[in-house]
TrEMBL record:
Listed name of the protein: RNA polymerase sigma factor
Residue stretches making up the DUF6596 domain: 190-290
Domain of life assignment: Bacteria
Domain RNA polymerase sigma factor 70 region 4 type intervals: 122-172
Pfam families with a match to the protein in the record: DUF6596, Sigma70_r2, Sigma70_r4_2
Family that this chain belongs to: Belongs to the sigma-70 factor family. ECF subfamily.
Gene Ontology MF terms: DNA binding; sigma factor activity
PANTHER family membership: BLL0085 PROTEIN, BLL6612 PROTEIN-RELATED
Any one GO biological process: DNA-templated transcription initiation
Domain RNA polymerase sigma-70 region: 21-81
Source organism of the structure: Streptomyces inhibens
Keywords: Sigma factor, Transcription, Transcription regulation
Length: 424
């Protein structure tokens, strides 16, 4: 690899790290997230032209911000807007400070960067956007992922992702979404939108809904990074720590969740020595922090507590299934859903016997939300197999295999169906 190639890789790595802070700072200044991203991209192009000749500067983030600052000034002057903005600011200065030369000098201040980053989080995950648009915009602005990377991660076309991002920016501009952290009375509702986006990104990485891969680790890593940022920026919000705890503990199993050829390995069959103990410790610490903050225990903290039961068990046989069943009951009260009830069926089956678990699962048979959900017949198949009802179990596994869109999971379910032909 040439020196120029090494420099280009270094530039891409730096931009991935710095882009969110860069766009956040520029958005505060120009009050337009789309324009801020364009300015950040202009700074990246300048780095690609300059750094191979001069080397990567000691403070690349500052260099990128200074370059973007000058591009912004040039742009405003070219469009003959600078004078009008300055005049407007002169009238409004006492009421609301906004774009000014001094703002550029404050952008690199650590406290200002953190404030701007938090504001950008709430813009990218604003409820005015569709869930798909929020996910795409968050990964683009805060994750620094390219459009093609997002498209590959979610198995959609690059044009589809690009369209979602463009529409999201236009929607934010049309809605005049302010660049601010929501007021305290609005924070809980808006924060739930932010955490939902991060949770969706993590889940898609942890158990891909479609395609040939069981997991997409890059998405898990990105969600964890974003979750840690939010928890760091909002240290008194227990659900932010609850979500981080959940993701840390779940991610700790990643190395054990697939076999040598990428095939799925189910939780109870995993080699627990391959679980990442550092991530488990970090997850348990985040869970403890969420619990210390008090208040109503939220859905992410409860899910993290369930994950912690698995993490603390040295073997599958030592798992505290009765506690997990109780935690799922609590989760059903906080965030009722058929999927939560299906998970409770698994826990009840493990804690109190397959017959009781099957009774819970059978109660969901007519649930419209689960009509095409492959995990309902999968769970029923497992419970029926444990009850020795092999023929019925085989039919359920085949039904689940037909419903899933993930090739790895389909192969696993078909194998489980074959096992019922000659049960042990």
């Amino acid at each position: 690899m040439t020196a120029t190639g090494d420099t280009h890789r270094a530039i891409e790595a730096v931009f991935r790290i710095e882009s969110a802070r860069l766009i956040a700072g520029l958005t505060r200044i120009v009050r337009d997230v789309g324009l801020a991203e364009e300015l950040a991209q202009d700074a990246l192009v300048a780095a690609l032209e300059r750094w191979p000749k001069t080397g990567v500067p000691d403070n690349p983030g500052a260099w990128l911000m200074a370059t973007a600052k000058h591009r912004a000034i040039d742009l405003l002057r070219r469009q003959e807007r600078l004078a009008r903005k300055v005049e407007t600011l002169g009238h409004e200065a006492e009421r609301e400070p906004t774009w000014a030369e001094a703002d550029f000098e404050r952008v690199l201040d650590t406290e200002v960067i953190e404030d701007d980053l938090l504001r950008l989080v709430f813009i990218a995950c604003h409820p005015v956007l569709s869930t798909q648009a929020r996910v795409a915009l968050t990964l683009r602005l805060l994750g620094g992922l390219r459009t093609d990377e997002i498209a590959r991660a979610f198995l959609v076309s690059e044009a589809t992702v690009a369209q979602r991002i463009v529409r999201a920016k236009k929607t934010l501009a049309a809605a005049r979404v302010p660049f601010e952290v929501p007021a305290r009375e609005e924070l809980a509702e808006r924060l739930s939108s932010v955490l939902e986006v991060i949770y969706l990104v993590f889940n898609e990485g942890y158990a891909a809904t479609a395609g040939d891969d069981w997991m997409r680790p890059a998405l898990c890593e990105e969600a964890l990074r974003l979750g840690r940022i939010v928890a760091g920026l909002l240290p008194e919000e227990p659900e932010a720590h609850g979500l981080v705890a959940l993701m840390e503990i779940q991610a700790s199993r990643s190395a054990a969740r697939t076999g040598p050829t990428g095939e799925p390995v189910l939780l109870l069959e995993q080699n627990r020595s391959r679980w990442d103990r550092l991530l488990i410790r970090r997850g348990l610490a985040a869970l403890a922090r969420a619990e210390e903050l008090g208040g109503t225990v939220g859905s992410y903290a409860l899910q993290a507590a369930i994950a912690a039961c698995h993490a603390r068990a040295r073997t599958a046989q030592e798992t505290d299934w009765p506690r997990i069943a109780v935690l799922y009951e609590a989760l059903a009260q906080v965030a009722p859903s058929p999927v939560v009830e299906l998970n409770r069926a698994v826990a009840v089956g493990m804690a109190f016997g397959a017959e009781q678990g099957l009774a819970v699962a059978d109660g969901l048979a007519e649930e419209p939300a689960l009509a095409g959900y492959h995990l309902l017949p999968s769970v029923r198949g497992d419970l029926l197999a444990r009850l020795g009802r092999a023929a019925e179990a085989r039919e359920e596994f085949l039904r689940a295999a037909a419903l899933t869109r993930n090739a790895r999971e389909r192969a696993l379910l078909e194998e489980r169906a074959r096992e019922q032909e000659f049960p042990a």
